[in-house]
Amino acid sequence: MGRPSGFSWTERGDGTVVVTHRGRAATTLRGPRAAAFLAEVESGDAQLVMARWTGSYRFGNERTARNHPRNR
Question: Model's pTM, two decimal places?
């Protein structure tokens, strides 16, 4: 399993946080969610935190799909 990469975030003047993945907007956070995101991204692995907050995290079915006969 590879590590998440390609994420970045920008905090706007109004407190809004925009998380991008490879240059495309993945999510926009406002208010208390933006504050919670900023606190978490500063204290942990930023790429992993952004992957989790955007929903671009492992869904759990990758191994099953890899072993499916059509994908061999």
Answer: 0.71
